[in-house]
Amino acid sequence: MSIAKEIAPHLPYLRRFARALTGTQTSGDAYVVAMLEALVADPSGFPRGIDPRIGLYQAFLKLWSSASVDMREPIVELTRAPAERNLEALTPRPRQAFLLRTVEGFSIEEVATIMGINPGDAATLVQTAGQEIAEQVATDVLIIEDEPIIALDIETMVEELGHTVTGVARTQREAIALVAKKRPGLVLADIQLADGSSGLDAVNEILSSIDVPVIFITAYPERLLTGDRPEPAFLITKPFQPEAVKAAISQALFFDRRAGRKAA
């Protein structure tokens, strides 16, 4: 089977990882394109003898970590963005391990293989990153979710991280009303709501009036990972792992320093 056929099913998820790692869709996609161009030019650069998904992420991080890679001009410009400068300042290796484990769902052993380290070191990196990120910010969070049990689970996770839930909206109308009442520093949203309204429409309406990071939590990720712009930088697939939601919250708030901090 060709490399293209082996990696094609995994590219939407690599793009999600790249966006979370860099902080922007544009920058993340640029690095993915650069990696694909490198593989076209030299197919031998793709790891063999391991699962294609693991090999794909390994090839991506090899390019990401290389100081000598010949980047195109747009990527050079993007590396000057504040989010990427922040990333460089805040221990990128632990952040890579953290994303691979908690967002992409790789086992510690798989994280170790991707990063070229031993499992013990991978586990330490994941723990270090989680502690660093969780200590960065605390904010007010709006949850848009029509399933009461799921909403309660998300609310519990949000509060365990030290944030405050301003409200839980079951419909687009309720979400807009809650934002008018108290501006959140983060929004967690499903895309199918109780009355048939759209969480995506609710988010778009919210973003027309305020600038706030958004994490989508949905059973239909393919509706958002289409290649069209804009796409969410933070997307969790249902059924979700609590660690994945917590990781996405910390990542979203880290990259968006404008998020309002929780009042003392």
Provide an overview of this structure.
It is a single chain. Helix 12 (199-207) links the parallel strand 3 (186-189) and strand 4 (214-218). A five-stranded parallel β-sheet has the order 2-1-3-4-5, sandwiched between helices. The chain is globular. The protein is built from 13 helices and five strands. Helices cover 54% and strands 9% of the residues. The termini are far apart. The protein has 264 residues and is an alpha/beta fold.
User: H/E series, N to C?
Assistant: HHHHHHHHHEHEHEHEEH
Q: Rough shape?
A: globular
Biggest sheet character:
5 strands, parallel
Rg on CA atoms, Å: 19 Å
Determine the number of helices (DSSP H or I, runs of at least 4 residues): 13
Report mean pLDDT, rounded to a whole number. 82
Strand content is 5-15%
Report how far the terminal alpha carbons are from each other. Answer: 57 Å
Which class do the helix and strand fractions yield?
alpha/beta
Helical content (DSSP H or I, runs of 4+): 40-55%
What spatial order of strands do you see in the largest sheet?
Answer: 2-1-3-4-5
Low-confidence stretches: 67-90, 257-261
How many DSSP E strands? 5
Highlighted features:
five-stranded parallel β-sheet, alpha/beta, 264 residues, 13 helices, single chain
